[in-house]
Amino acid sequence: MIEGDNYHALTCLNYTHKGKVDVIYIDPPYNTTSDGFKYKDKRVIDKYPDGTTVDVNSPFRHSYWLSFLHKRLELSKSLLSTDGIIFISIDYHEFAQLKLLCNEIFGEDNFLAHLIWRGMHTTRNSSKDFNQNTEYILVYAKNKSQLIVAGDSDTYLRFFKDKSSSYPFDDNDGNGKYKLDPIYARNFYEPYEVEFPNGVKWSAPRGNYPRYSKTNLLRMYEEGLIIFSGKEPKAKRYLRNVKEGVPPDTLLPSDIVGFNKDGTSLLNYMFEGRKVFDQPKSVALIKYLLSISSKKKKSKQKQIILDFFAGSGTTGQAVMELNEDDGLNRQCILITNNENNIMTDVCYPRQKKVVEGYTYLGTIKKILFREKISFKTLANAQRINEEVNLIAETSTNKWEKLIKKVVGNELQIIGENRRSNKIEGLGNSLKFYRTSFVGNRNILNIKDEDKVELAHNAGELLALSENTLDLINKDDWMQLYESNDRYTAIYFREEMTNFEKFKSIVKKLDKPVSIYVFSWGDNEFPDDFAEIKDAKVKTIPAPILEIYKQIYNLNTK
Asked: Same domain, yes or no, for 55 and 168?
């Protein structure tokens, strides 16, 4: 989890995760004039990105929104792996503009689909024209030719199902399971008669057509794929030759992905009935998108998921739940600022609840009495009052709360009980970082004091790039991070007073190590650590600055 401006965080990730992210899902501001979107980026950052808040009535509102998203999508594209994929939620306010922007950044040839999601399950009676109850998800590939490999077990964008039960036969000849299919169909090849080498003459039954050409049918006979049993010959169809999975529809199935209300209800339950975020996406929706974009259904290979408009943290919960469901090993990076305390009060606590477990509070409601209001019922007001009182007396011990209200043309009494359920934690590990802008100057005009400050503050960035996330030692001169299989050691001072002590510590490490040393030059220290096996020696901050310069030039042309 990264708390901070997502433009800066994406810049950092271009140092640590360039080309490593498999799936990006984002739910950016829809720019509806009521969703709180404020453009605060400067086109050229001279000092700090304070920028200007945009008035909702500004004639440049769409342009500001596009500029805001353009820079972030450019950075996200370079993070995607060669077969990566991005999902972007949006509604009708900016759909057309976003589609053109994505065509420009990702390439029109890499457009895959725009998915239609019925986010609202009810009819908004206040609508002046159409009931706008749908949202959209634009889907682009980093490189479409790398993404879709027909018939491959690594194929993206498919539902994977175990079909083995539909293939009941196995000759134990190494070809695997198969089933027997008719060799005729409704509308394939023109009718013909064929005589097989075994003397059997065959033509399709009346009203049907051969499923295969005569040439292919005879070839299949020679390969032993035609079985003569029963009234009609049949063809062997092997499970190994079946294209794996079923392509998903662009119209998302509501019974699987749910509605906006589901996201709201779940979040309210998790936070003890308090409404802490407006319109969170449903966990089921994100799980659905991730499930159809999983690289290897039976592999333990890590898949990295990124959401840089994390909001309440739905994507993080979806990733952990999906890992629990299918046993895969996805990792998730969530980025959001802390505006209105969204990170500290909602997103981060939500991830902890999923990891550690939580108790949620819900409400059970039951209608105990209903009567349509009419002149007749008003005339029998005494009878109705007696019934209501009787229900109240007999329900005292059954319901914590009784609500009397008029719904439409009905008088109703509703019983309510609060309930609490313990949700077990899913485990997993959780790391929380904060980003901030380092130095006082534009990256192209950086001075020595800015370089020193960057080196002093780059430790966690370097640890992320090496995937060594556990800090085991830090002082005023050096830092040491660890993972299961390696270390990252950083000497971040320009003074060399404690360098020998640093070398001594590094040489005693019992796992491969990546070593970073402050330097005004480049590649100055390989001989100091030559005796350490599997050691990588790098200097800072020069390589980090080069990455920043490349990104800066890319985004300020």
From this structure: no
The predicted model gives 111-132 an average pLDDT of 79
Cα 377 to Cα 34: distance, rounded to the nearest angstrom? 44
* C-beta separation of 473 from 459 below 8 A: no
Q: Say if 248 falls within a structural domain.
A: no
Strand ranges for 77-205 from DSSP E: 80-90, 111-117, 135-141, 169-170, 177-182, 184-185, 193-195, 201-203
Contact 518, 412 (CB under 8 A): no
Judge if 120 and 31 occupy the same domain.
yes
- Same-domain status, 87 and 146: yes
Residues 451 and 547 reside in one and the same domain? yes
Pairing mode of beta strands 21-26, 302-307? parallel
| Tens-place pLDDT, residues 478-506 | 999 999 999 999 998 888 899 999 999 99
Q: Quote the domain boundaries for residue 548.
A: 439-555
CA distance 110 to 108: 5
Averaged confidence pLDDT in the chain: 83
User: Do residue 197 and residue 120 come from a single domain?
Assistant: no
Q: How far is CA 13 from CA 7, 457, 480, in A?
A: 10, 15, 20
CA distance 143 to 157: 14
Please tell me the predicted confidence (pLDDT) of residue 297: 47
Nearest 5°: the CA angle 291, 294, 300 is 120
Q: Are the beta carbons of 516 and 544 closer than 8 angstroms?
A: no
In a domain, residue 430? The reply is: no
Same domain, 15 and 149: yes
Q: Are residues 22 and 105 in the same domain?
A: yes
Cα–Cα distances in angstroms (integers) from residue 546 to residues 12, 45, 75, in the given order: 12, 17, 15
Q: Is 38 inside any structural domain? A: yes
Task: Provide the CATH number for the domain around residue 300.
Answer: 3.40.50.150
* Domain boundary residue, one of 359, 377, 395: 359
Question: Is 73 a residue whose pLDDT tops 80?
Answer: yes
Spatial separation of the C-alpha atoms in residues 154 and 293, rounded to whole Å: 10
Are residues 345 and 271 part of one domain?
yes
31: left (phi over 0), alpha (psi -120 to 50) or beta: left
Position 486, amino acid: R
Query: So what's the pLDDT on residue 123?
Result: 63
Q: Reply yes or no: is the peptide bond before residue 541 cis, omega within 30 of 0.
A: yes
Helix axes 542-555, 448-457, angle to 10 degrees: 110
Determine what percent of the chain is predicted with pLDDT higher than 90: 38
Contact between residue 311 and residue 31 where contact means Cβ atoms under 8 Å apart: no
Looking at the structure of the chain, the number of domains it has is 4
How far apart, in whole angstroms, are the C-alpha atoms of residue 410 and residue 406?
A: 5
Per-residue model confidence as pLDDT tens digits over 334-349: 999 998 899 999 999 9
The residues facing 482 across adjacent strands are 470, 487
> So what's the pLDDT on residue 541?
80
DSSP string, 328-361: -EEEEEEEE--GGGHIIIIIHHHHHHHHHEEEEE
Paired tokens of 531? 């005796």
Q: Is residue 296 part of a domain?
A: yes
The rounded Cα 222 to chain-centroid distance in angstroms is 49
Which structure tokens are listed for 248?
């998903």
